[in-house]
């Protein structure tokens, strides 16, 4: 008897958890059996890295190859090469901001600084910009394919303007010091012209520029079709 009572109590307990008793109506008591609610399947939200990976998967092979060429050309291979006698030094693209701020860094090397880290982050943003149209569907998003080429052209223009400008500003045209300043500028510009013959574009510059042009062409074509 005790075993039967125990089994009966277990059955009653299971039935209690498996049903909800509704209040009595005028025509009698009504029971509504409901199963215990199932736990909802919680799908974890996609991370930003996962979205970037999905966007990269959607890209075509030519775009991925161009981005890889830019990445190698900017961060691993020299963009500018200086060969002057026994001096042989290279400057990579992500160090070009230091050369723009001080062109003598092309010959004496680039020191680690916050400016270098900040410009490296800008390079990464421009490099990953072509993933944007595969992440957010928009017609104008295809213009992000132009970001690497725009950055290279901007840096080249700034470096050329910095190296070709006057090193010493002349304050007065009639003052005796202005003649000395003009002579110093002419002498430095003449020397920089001789030195510029020993500066050439490295493999990294050609590799990154080719990848940037390819990406820009693809972006303009898809922008016109969108």
Write the layout of secondary structure elements.
Elements: H1 2-18, E1 19-21, E2 31-33, H2 48-58, H3 61-75, E3 78-84, E4 87-92, H4 96-101, H5 105-108, H6 114-128, H7 132-135, H8 147-164, H9 176-196, E5 199-201, H10 203-225
Antiparallel strand pairs: 1-2, 3-4, 3-5
Describe the structure.
The protein is mainly alpha-helical and 226 residues long. The protein is 59% helix and 10% strand. It has 10 helices and 5 strands, in the order αββααββααααααβα. A 3-stranded antiparallel sheet has the order 4-3-5. Strands 1-2 form a two-stranded antiparallel ribbon. A hairpin with a 2-residue loop joins strand 3 and strand 4. Helix 3 packs antiparallel against helix 10 (203-225) and helix 8 (147-164) crosses helix 10. It is elongated, with a radius of gyration of 34 Å. The termini are far apart.
Which structural class best describes the helix and strand composition?
mainly alpha
- Share in helix: 55-70%
The first-to-last residue Cα distance is 81 Å
Major sheet description: 3 strands, antiparallel
Number of strand elements: 5
Look at the structure and give the mean pLDDT. 76
Rg over CA atoms: 34 Å
Coarse morphology: elongated
Total number of helical segments?
A: 10
What strand order characterises the main sheet? 4-3-5
Low-confidence stretches: 18-22, 28-45
Proportion of strand residues: 5-15%
Element-level helix/strand string: HEEHHEEHHHHHHEH
